[in-house]
Amino acid sequence: MNTPPKHALAHPVLLAALAAALAAGGCATRLEMESAGGSRRVPVLDDIASLRVKFQNPALSPANGGALVTAEALQPGDILLTAGSGLMSVGIQVLTLAPVSHAALYVGDGQVIEAVGEGVRTRSVQAVLEEEAMVVAFRHPGATPQAATLMRDFAHGKVGSRYGYLGVVLHAPFAVERRVCELPLVPGLVRDFCLRGVALVQLGTGSDDRFFCSQFVLEAYRHAGLPITTAQAHWMSPADLLHMRADDVPSMTVQQTLHYVGHLKYTEPQRMAQE
């Protein structure tokens, strides 16, 4: 999520409310806290990458089976999942029990298209690598050049669309209540049924004219005729996309598991001193 306006940051109560609402289910890129002496980075939690739902496999990293790759390894249609070190990103990682907080769609020519606070926008892969602490890529095995073109056209057509703030705020109760469905011993079909019921009550049927990050990526795939999950796009968080990879346990039924491409950037979690 982009940095809120400075006048919003000036009020600590408003900032706390905004952070709680958006962190519950939103998408984060970076946030810096404004102070009278300038900006400072907010410390992240130790070992944030280790937080996960217990029945799910550990998050990939170059240290436990992952691989570091360059941007040249990307193909149009790849999904980039990222994590930053700001307050919003850390909050999302904690509440979703996952090491990622944002999702973007690679459309080729060194560019991604993503839904952030200012709306749907284009950003260069180079900027992503400079601004994020971790960047990992996944690929749909059926993403042909033709499908990637459909996704790119859909994404470009949505540039400038407004961000789905309402959908993000509605994720707050869902992020809490879904944990009952995701208990380690709950069978997969029961978990899927439980989550769909809770999502329908808490999140409703959604809207197709405003997007948050993971919703935008899933809608692009649906538009290209390659739906990744049978669940509605606005029910899914970046953490859900992460666990749709092969050899993991997704919370809701997927139609196609994603293949791990590699990490474009990986930073070991550590406590950062305030600057």
From TrEMBL:
<keyword id="KW-0732">Signal</keyword>
<dbReference type="InterPro" id="IPR038765">
    <property type="entry name" value="Papain-like_cys_pep_sf"/>
</dbReference>
<dbReference type="GO" id="GO:0016787">
    <property type="term" value="F:hydrolase activity"/>
</dbReference>
<feature type="signal peptide">
    <location>
        <begin position="1"/>
        <end position="23"/>
    </location>
</feature>
<protein>
    <submittedName>
        <fullName>Distant relative of cell wall-associated hydrolase</fullName>
    </submittedName>
</protein>
<keyword id="KW-0378">Hydrolase</keyword>
